[in-house]
Amino acid sequence: MLSQFYSTVIGGEERHVAALSQALVARGHQVAVATLQLDGLAAEEDEGPVPVHRVRSSAQRLPVLFSDPSRPHVPPLPDPHLAWGLRRVARAVRPDVIHAHNWIVNAALPLRAASPAALVLTLHDYSHVCATKRMMRAGAPCPGPALGACLRCAGDHYGRALGPAVALATRPLRPLRDHFLDGIIAVSRTVAEGNRLEGARVPHRVIPNFIADELWEEAGSPLSPVPHPALPTEPFLFFAGDLSRDKGVPALLEAYARLERRPRLVLAGRRTPDTPATLPEGAVLLPDCPHKLVMEGFHRCLAALAPSTWPDPCPTVVLEAMASGAPLIASAIGGIRDMVVDGESGLLVTPGDVDELAAALRRLLGDPSLRLRLTEGGRARALGFTASRVVPRIEDAYAAALHSRRLSREGK
Q1: 73: which DSSP letter?
Q2: Would the pTM of this model clear 0.70, i.e. be above it?
């Protein structure tokens, strides 16, 4: 597994890599992870049955490149120092499959010529074609890459000095990746479409993120009668995720403020530069929540909310909410449309439409039978996104990539 961050830096992508690694080990595979070495972390250590190898990148020598030096993201081109470190790890591990996640794949391309391993890429976003990885332009979903627009958009996102360089590095590397890759996994149909995978040389599959079988089972168990001290004792609405415009937080707060009778609104997540400065009365912020507390929030809430305004690739919190039995209101955008069946496992609303979101909240809060129906439908739907259902599909992708790699080495 190649992941730019792992362990102490945890987001949706990192949690997926960790969960997949553990699930593959449980199914009899040997798994090792290679990731960036951050300050204070050992170069090598074992996290349970998964050895973790940490390597430095050339970009880390220039902390001015990063808005947050503690998160030195991998650049969209083959980083020489990182490529050398990954080659050293590959020689020690001797993998059959190298499974890269997003831009760290660029540092793995030199391995493809020197190793018999198959190279598989999972796209968790739109980084195959988009310099900002988000497929958003001027606050709205982007209609598609265009050089002039991409240069301007990347400049706005990364700064005028760095942005154009990132955009110019992203576009020409797409054909190089396609040449060396043996398979691509997109986490949703929207990600496959946004990255223009249809018709590409390299075969691709849509395989979603997943939740652990144990999480689905535990989420259906009775809760302690006493909630966590951070959670309200009275009924509440629950949001988990970055407190950003992309995640729909401003629209959510405005819709919530329009409710005539408001239960508490709990927002569990990380502040971002565009987090609203003030909250309406009744809303409370729980920053840096442990995952266990987030799951309890989903389990206890009147309704869970995922009102993203960007084409969210495959937000695992949606699966966690449904698995926990939380009646769900979510945006009809991105990978959410692959997970939620409107009216059966959740209510889907137009992204950013405050009136529609407020109406959905009123409808759900005023109809206990609807909440019960969505609870049952959400639990049933989430079962199809558990590790035992999804990981075999990833194993099949590995088998296909290995077959393709063998044919390539035989010149067929």
Answers
A1: P
A2: yes
